[in-house]
Amino acid sequence: MDIISQLQEQVNNIASIAFNTFGTLQRDAPPVRLSPNYPDPAANPAEDVSTFAEQPKLMSAALVKAAKQFDSLVAALPLAEGGEEAQLKRIAELQAENDSWVKNFRSN
Fold it and tell me: Which H/E stretch holds residue 70?
């Protein structure tokens, strides 16, 4: 698998971990009273407090690990020819080409 495919796979992995982390926190977070005008939230008797306390730690560790793997993949990318100035020039050329294409597409 080439490095770009590995980077894309790692980005997908990070997104999946983040999505699952936020969903788990949203699902398992204890209820909070929003206003004195509302009744106290119902307690969830099936909650296992020890598991709930460990999950965020495990999930954040997985997220940090995935981010570090992504950083190591980025570091393994070959250096571009011509340096930063050549890259910026090429980006400007591509952007001008894209703008021209969009303009032609909209006029048709």
Answer: helix 49-75
Question: What percent of the chain has a predicted confidence (pLDDT) above 70?
Answer: 89
Question: What separation, in Å, do the N-terminal and C-terminal C-alpha atoms of the chain show?
Answer: 40
CA 1/CA 46 separation, integer angstroms? 45
Torsion 83-89-95-97 (CA) sign = negative
Question: What pLDDT sits at residue 45?
Answer: 57
Inter-residue contact 80 to 87 (CB < 8 Å): yes
DSSP, collapsed to helix, strand or coil, labels residue 48 as: coil
Render pLDDT for 19-66 as a digit per residue (tens, 0 to 9): 998 888 888 777 777 778 877 766 665 555 566 678 888 888 999 999
Domain range annotation of the chain = 3-77, 83-108
- Structure token pair of residue 60: 């954040």
